[in-house]
Amino acid sequence: MAITAAQVKALRDETSAGVMECKRALEETGGDADAARDLLRQWGLARAATKVGREVLHGLVESYIHAGGRIGVLLELNCETDFVARTEEFRGLAHDLAMQVAATNPRFVRRDELSAEQQGEAAELCLLAQPYIRDTGRPVEDVVREAMARFGENVEVRRFVRFELGA
After folding, report:
1. What is the b/e burial string over 37-60, where b = at least 16 CB atoms within 10 angstroms of the residue's CB?
2. Are residues 98 and 140 in the same domain?
3. CA 115 to chain centre
4. Full-prediction pTM beyond 0.85?
5. 100 and 147 share a domain?
6. Same domain, residue pair 35 and 66
7. For the chain, how many structural domains are there in total?
8. What are the tens digits of pLDDT across the range 15-58?
9. pLDDT tens digit string along 51-74?
10. Is the same domain home to 65 and 35?
11. pLDDT tens-place string over residues 68-82
């Protein structure tokens, strides 16, 4: 089956993957856009795994004040380059993660910060282990990993602080 430029463009617009990568995914799936999207996701996650551990010196501090001003969050999200840190998608990820902290009140960023006694409560205490508020079928860690695949860079939640009146 011949892959058309319109098919490649539609998949690229939807996934932000490269043109040649979209074409290759469509060719490997016989033009099936849904299967190609899944294949691109798998490839991206595999690439993201190779980026973990790379130095993250750029990023931003996102603030979120919940309606009524009773809960506030400051969250530091880091990446490898200033170019990625300035994108709307990166800012949106930081905002969503700050909202996650406001809604779920985690105590730690990642599992390795938990004591041995707390390991059983990781999904409640650890931000990256929690179910994502926008899609409870997957953990926050998967959302960050997928962002790494899209950005082509290591992305890391460095720290956060949550304020609540009267707490």
Report:
1. bebbbeebeeebeebeeeebebbb
2. yes
3. 25
4. no
5. yes
6. no
7. 2
8. 767 788 888 888 888 888 888 888 877 777 677 667 667 788 89
9. 667 788 899 999 999 988 999 999
10. no
11. 899 999 999 999 999
What is the total residue count of the chain?
A: 167
Tell me, letter by letter, the H, E, C secondary structure of the chain: CCCCHHHHHHHHHHHCCCHHHHHHHHHHCCCCHHHHHHHHHHHHHHHHHHHCCCCCCEEEEEEEECCCCCEEEEEEEEECCHHHHCCHHHHHHHHHHHHHHHHHCCCECCHHHCCHHHHHHHHHHEHHHCEECCEEEEEHHHHHHHHHHHHCCCEEEEEEEEEECCC
Q: What is the model's pLDDT at position 107?
A: 96
What is d(CA 105, CA 73) in angstroms, rounded to the nearest whole number? Answer: 10
- Is there a single domain that holds both residue 94 and residue 36? no
Helix axes of 33-51 and 19-28: crossing angle, nearest 10 degrees: 120
